[in-house]
Amino acid sequence: MELGTITSKGQMTIPVGIRKHFGLNSGDKLQFVIEDDHIVMVPAKGSVRSLKGMIPRPKKAISIEEMNAAVESEAAHRMTEL
């Protein structure tokens, strides 16, 4: 078990072994989750910016009107399936 100390400013140093194990670096973010009487810290890897380029650009740009029509069409289709 490794220990860290909370400073008077609420800051904490994560032990080097933990940082190395999870590949944590300066500036990385952690999510804090409360589970019963425990605090769980989870590396918050990635950001919205990391999603850029995951979906290829369409070959042909479409207008807002075309998008709205497609949404309306799909909504109507789903309503008939209920």
What this model shows, in words?
- The N and C termini lie far apart (54 Å).
- The protein has helices at 16-22, 64-81; strands at residues 30-35, 38-43.
- Strands 1-2 form a two-stranded antiparallel sheet.
- The protein is built from two helices and two strands; from the N terminus they run H-E-E-H.
Q: What's the short version?
A:
It contains 2 helices and 2 strands; from the N terminus they run αββα.
Task: Describe the strand arrangement of the main beta sheet, using strand numbers.
Answer: 1-2
- Overall structural class, as computed from helix and strand content, comes to alpha+beta
Distance between the termini: 54 Å
Largest sheet: 2 strands, antiparallel
Give keywords:
82 residues, two-stranded antiparallel ribbon, elongated, alpha+beta, 2 helices
Write the layout of secondary structure elements.
Layout: H1 16-22, E1 30-35, E2 38-43, H2 64-81
Antiparallel strand pairs: 1-2
